[in-house]
Amino acid sequence: MKKNRPAYKLTVISKEKDIQKMKDIIFKETTTIGIRYKIEKRTELERENIYVDTKYGRIKAKKVVNNEEVYIYPEYESMKELAEKNNIPLKELYKLN
């Protein structure tokens, strides 16, 4: 960093309404005397929570539609639980999708 000193980069993600609170915490808890920040925008697709039946049992998933294409995303924790219950590799469950 400046004058060849070592430095750390701190990244904080928060709601826009909490920016001042985050700045206050950073100034209080670190030795920094300046903060750069920017507002990021995010586009989210509509999603629906669903269940998918497999030969090993039922898993939780999210159904997402984008430009008339449908995607199904299985929930990791649900997949992990089913894999452990059936004593099979997690990869095998993912191949069923």
Can you summarize this structure?
With 97 residues, the chain is α+β, with helices and mostly antiparallel strands. The chain is built from three helices and three strands. Helix content is 29%, strand content 25%.
Which terms summarize this structure?
97 residues; alpha+beta; 3 strands
Describe this structure in words.
This protein has 97 residues and is an alpha+beta fold. The chain has a domain at 47-95. It is built from 3 helices and 3 strands, in the order H-E-E-E-H-H. Strand 1 and strand 2 (57-66) form a beta hairpin. The longest helix is centred in the N-terminal third of the chain and has 11 residues, at 19-29. It is elongated and about 60 Å long. It starts with 18 loop residues before the first helix and ends with a helix.
User: Measured on Cα atoms, how large is the radius of gyration?
Assistant: 22 Å
- What does the largest sheet look like? 3 strands, antiparallel
What amount of the residues lies in strands?
15-25%
Low-pLDDT parts are none
User: Which shape, going by the Cα principal axes?
Assistant: elongated
Order of helices and strands: HEEEHH
Count of alpha and pi helical runs: 3
Strand neighbour order, sheet with most strands: 1-2-3
Give me the secondary-structure category: alpha+beta
Helical percentage: 25-40%
Q: Care to count the β-strands?
A: 3
User: Taking all residues together, what is the mean pLDDT?
Assistant: 92
CA(first)-CA(last) distance? 47 Å
